Amino acid sequence: MDHHAHGTPTLENLHTETRTFSPLVSFAVHANATAYEYKKAEVDRLAYWREQALQLQWKIPFTEVLDWSDAPFARWFHDGTLNACDNAVDKHVRKGRGDRVAFYFEGEPGDTQTLTYNDMYERVQKAANGLLSLGVRKGDRVAIYLPQIPEAVVAMLACARIGAIHSVVFGGFSAESLRQRIDDAEAKLVITADGGNRRGAHLALKPLVDAALVPSENHDKPAESVTNVLVVRRTGQDTAWVEGRDLWWHDVVDPQPAQHEPEWVDAEHPLFILYTSGTTGTPKGLFHTTGGYLTQAMTSHKQVFDLKPETDVYWCTADVGWVTGHSYIVYGPMINGATQVLYEGVPNAPHEGRWWEIVEKYRVTILYTAPTAIRTCMKWGEAIPDQYDLSSLRLLGSVGEPINPEAWMWYRRVIGGNRCPVVDTWWQTETGAIMISPLPGVTATKPGCAHAPLPGVVADVVDDTGRSVSNGEGGYLVIREPWPSMLRGIWGDRKRYRKTYWNQFDGMYFAGDGAKKDIDGEIWLMGRVDDVMNVSGHRLSTTELEHALVSHPWVAEAAVVGASDETTGQAVVAFVVVRSDGDGAQATGEEVAQELRKQVRREIGPFATPRTILVVSEVPKTRSGKIMRRLLRDVAENRPVGDVTTLADGSVMNAIAEGLGAGKGD
Ligand code: PRX
Hints:
Distance between the termini: 29 Å
Helix content: 25-40%
Largest sheet: 8 strands, mixed
Bound molecules: adenosine-5'-monophosphate-propyl ester
Oligomer: single chain
Radius of gyration: 24 Å
């Protein structure tokens, strides 16, 4: 396997990791999850999922659980009808729980809002009517490009309410990335804000939407599918305005009646599209449908986070622009009637104790975050969290990348006071919901281990030939049976779905991750085995970055690798060959690096900015022209360069290593 993820357990410590943490009896006796669920699902998996799905509110109940006759295209609960917003909001009002707080919103500047389920009910109905007034209809696509503010949740649910398909684009993406996503989904409407708050400054969003919609270097035409841009006033900054196209959210939504009958859709009606990076240059629009997705988001959230909706305060720190925000801020928790914290800002503004201040303020009981954040807090030192009362916490979750045992132990001890179970949850945009995780109150956990597939999920680790590996061996992570929240495909590209996920191993879903089974048969994730990088839990494609770099006139060739990084897990390291006939030939290495950093921000977004950009005379390739990323990773990680025998020109690596001796770094 050709990969090195940061902090992932090595085969060696995998066999020596003996620390286990058995569930406390005091936790176990009240736990939502029980060992019996595994048994039940094992005996009859489809009956298990039927039972779970029946906990949703159906308008017309389904009769068939799974139709797999057109594999790998699945249909779950397909003859039932329901509405996602009805499940997430209306249900609670109907059941007399409307007064419960749905969100404690904490803006970065310190402004707050408390929104009950009644408030959400009013807001989603008004927003649904607002969308209808703009001509958005069932099946239409709506791009949402917003900061982490309540309107983001309301906008998603309002789309779901009218049967429109939302495509949330993370606010850190550039105008160019936004445009690609708008075009691919043929979005009719873009919902954005004037801007958001970042470290005390106003970050503009609307100008990026404006830039995305007009003709540009990469697009000779304006974005033709878009008829309106709906703008939330968040920062109050000045905003250019296109008359007839741009509308304020408060003008459109606020005057609407707060009554709207949800659009009842088939279980297989698409709920959302979410773009994610694969191994090729173009992001894939993965789409999820309604019934199966909601079932698994709801069930996994209840089991893995042990949610007690009357008493818990749950906080998932992810952005709603990523799948974690979709499944574990919007759909799973809201269906379960959770009270949540929604925070607009970053962990260190205005100070490095901001997260822990929020935990103390709202008495947060369940925290779900990413290893990169944990490692960053470790770096700032435990004296910071120690200043706050974190005694309300009772469960800690991790997601996004392999968690190294040291970070796991620190999280458990410093944040969790040695009393909170830590759940390391493995899943993907594709899987829609958590697939592999310990169950709190049931599993004896090991630091850094994701343990076992959840009840109803059939995962395995296989070798090159698709044979299940023995305990103590490594291989590729696969899912053997369809699951309710599985992606239903890639928007507009049936073939690519089959080819990307179902071609490697016969009849199995290939996740793209390496994994190992320890001597107890428990699963440890080892990082991606393909050309996908994981930077601060954000998924990036090496090819996509290479495309962004070579589209700059100074660049002749580019090769990108993910090198291990202490804080971000992996960091982007780019090797570029500068064109001798361009202006770049006169520039210093530092100037080239600066210019190309700007290029990546412009083409993809600030979060993809390379840590290191190195100018080299040639990129190592095989005789068939494939970039040898393994060798470049050796250089980027300061290791002796590995086997070069398959290189077309064996001296290239020497030249690179020598050239870097002088100007290593950026
Ligand atoms: O490599 C795995 C890693 O993140 C990838 C999925 O990224 P994305 O679709 O952006 O979703 C992230 C949030 C669900 C996976 O292929 N990954 C995610 N969670 C873990 C993980 N790797 C190891 N351990 C995890 N808990």
